[in-house]
Amino acid sequence: RGISGLFQASADDVDTTISTNVTSLFHVLRAVTPGMIDRQRGHIVNIGSVAGLYPITSSIYGASKGAVHLLSQNLRLELRGSGVRVTEICPGRVDTEFFDAALDDTATREKVKDTGIQNLQSQDIADAIMYALDAPWRVNVGLIEITPNEQAFGGLSFTPVKSS
Length: 164
Fold this sequence. Notes:
The structure is a single chain. 45% of the residues lie in helices and 11% in strands. The chain is mainly alpha-helical. The chain has one domain: Rossmann fold (3-Layer(aba) Sandwich), CATH 3.40.50.720. Helix 1 packs parallel to helix 2. The longest helix has 29 residues, at 11-39. The two termini are 30 Å apart.
């Protein structure tokens, strides 16, 4: 819920998406980061999405993940000199139950899920996280964009206005 366009989504879908992807992240960070600052050591790993880096048709989800992206960038600046590293992992399509939970309409869900490409696996995301965590302490891996080989962004799109 929330991966539909802004004008197709219910107010509850908007609130749930923002609460899940943004508000909850703020609360968790406020709870755990002070201890890292006190220890002068820690590593925050935020799970963003390529949907927060590039325009997509799911404006609510994209905007919520865009907030995660900017929060990660701002945190890195805010926490400089504290000994706390900040990494954002931005996966593309991952083979999870995401679309099953996000889309009610069976036909739309199957169309979105069945793209014919080989999606990332959860282990790929775990490996990316471990890459950032295992980096020498002098290194901050700020952003990892990880996508299936067949997923790319860019290009131009032109759609004429439909006449009434």
